[in-house]
Amino acid sequence: MKTTTKKSQSVNRDSRSKRTAREKLSAKLVIRRAKFSDLPAIAKMSDGVREIENYPGQKMKANDFAHFVGSKDAFMLVAAAEKEVVGYITVYKSYNYLYLPYAVVRKDWRRHGVGTALLNEVEALAKKEKVEYILMSVYDYNSSVHKLLKSRGYVSSKKLVQYSKIITGKK
């Protein structure tokens, strides 16, 4: 009986120390606008996105994101930790809403508050710009993002289905 108690006490102590480490990691995050020099890291982080979107054999390249840097109708926020990009979110601005087509967090930084920090910044900008709503695309299998968005008051569209058709035939 005492062994079990000691074991559970050490497990509780371990989970507390992990939580503290996560909080420390999140505290080091800086959310800022993306720069051209960030694009190679962003493209690397996005490896595999085209496969998921049903564009077989295509990979995202740094120049695929260039229009989000310096545009008046689109921008990208990055989460940086110790000057290293660990996540990003892309934003298109319309007259009354913001559309967020991509948000990626590096695997080793997931569940450390990076997505929440990026979303907080987008929502603050939306309030400042007085937009009516935010629309975000999320893959159906990404349950952790669905849970995050629902916890923040977002509702899913039960009617929107996205289709794609490859025209060029390039892979």
Describe it.
This protein has 171 residues and is of the alpha+beta class. It has one domain (20-151): 3-Layer(aba) Sandwich (Aminopeptidase), CATH 3.40.630. It contains five helices and six strands; from the N terminus they run H-E-H-H-E-E-E-E-H-E-H. The chain has helices at residues 2-27, 39-45, 49-52, 114-129, 143-151; strands at residues 29-33, 74-81, 84-93, 97-100, 103-105, 133-136. Strand 3 and strand 4 form a beta hairpin.
List keywords for this structure.
alpha+beta; six-stranded mixed sheet; globular; disordered N terminus
Task: Itemize the secondary structure elements and their pairings.
Blueprint: H1 2-27, E1 29-33, H2 39-45, H3 49-52, E2 74-81, E3 84-93, E4 97-100, E5 103-105, H4 114-129, E6 133-136, H5 143-151
Parallel strand pairs: 4-6
Antiparallel strand pairs: 1-2, 2-3, 3-4, 3-5
